[in-house]
Amino acid sequence: MDVSLSAAARQYVAEHLHDDPATLALQARRYPDLPVRELVQQIQARQKAKAKLPAWAANPDLVFPASLSVEQASSARTAAFKAELVAGARVADLTGGFGVDTSHFAQQVGEVHYVERNAQLAEVVRHNLGILGIGNVQVHVGDAAAWLREQPDGYFNWLYLDPARRDTADKKIFRLADCEPDVLRLLPLLLRKAERILLKTSPMLDVEQALQELGRVRRLWVVAVDNECKEVLYELGQEAAVDPERLTINLMRDGREQSFRTNRTREAKATPRYAEPQTYIYEPNVAVLKAGGFKSVGASYNLLKLHQHSHLYTSHTLREDFPGRIFQCRAVCKYDKKELLAHLDADQRAHVTVRNFPDSVADFRYRTGIREGGTTYLLATTDLRGRLIVLVCDRLNHHPSTSSEQQ
């Protein structure tokens, strides 16, 4: 099965890479000698991949599958992070997909097996691996469980799975038992064939429920990119940890990383101390919150909490290593339009975040007339006495990210 593109096809894709796919499809008759429909799919997939797979999207010799496979693929940064977690001589990616994770595993491990039941997608990956000069991957087409049963027990150091998270109606699903393949059913087989299992799940999946259902978790990672939670990874082995470590990582656009670790015991033992807003305000990143580090993150950095349910912290002394956004507080205001506008420039712009606050960001903007933008940050929350307050702040550890959030 030849999936490569002709020179004319590659030229068409390169010339129209930034054009609207729908418009290109309507102009197909202008190119009777080219499979324009398939090439428009290539363009559309590359456009979707530009942000998370920039090097692949820019490579004219690579072939891209249907856009859904690209949407479900890991980003280059999260794939590189996962590759750092595995070691040994032999790894198998049992849910191969577009092959992004496989290609990164191949940079860390001597022998990698890619398994995919979609023959055409597997052929695309085989082609792309050749273009990328990756020669230590064996491509297998077929059912992952059937293929795995044929392999010797204990043959792999690691098995990796990223189960499909869509049902037959193409709706997102978030229960392990509803994913394909069913990891819970396959777990005994997986543990016979490998020392370790690395399981990727949707960030929407409940961590506590997954830990209970899997039962063999040694540790887990919550991975965010630019403060957007992307995936949760579980390491499984023959024996589970009594209280698995929960490691969080926020991969930021400027190349920095924020990390934090906690577990159920440390979180339960953490006793928050409360205070009115002080000089600095801290907002944990989404990975910390997803891992359940609501109290332990404050205890670890010796910070004071504004309210039991606000998950905002404060201090007089700056903690630059805090895993989240850091602000310097200029003023503490009532939820009052006139008082807030007095702290803004004439354009009346600010970034707004609400935490433990009755109004949404949209409602806040409607009531105050404050538009998005500018350099001022407004954190609307509740203080330790139960009063609604708005913190007028400057951002200290700025990096490009979503400016308005609600939780």
UniProtKB/TrEMBL annotation:
InterPro entries (alphabetical): PG_1098_Fer, SAM-dependent_MTases_sf, Thump-like
Chain ranges of the THUMP-like domain: 324-395
SUPFAM superfamilies for the chain: S-adenosyl-L-methionine-dependent methyltransferases (SSF53335)
Domain of life: Bacteria
Domain PG-1098 ferredoxin-like: 280-323
Gene3D superfamilies: Methyltransferase PG1098, N-terminal domain, Vaccinia Virus protein VP39
Matches recorded under CDD domains: AdoMet_MTases (cd02440)
Full protein name: Uncharacterized protein
Organism: Hymenobacter oligotrophus
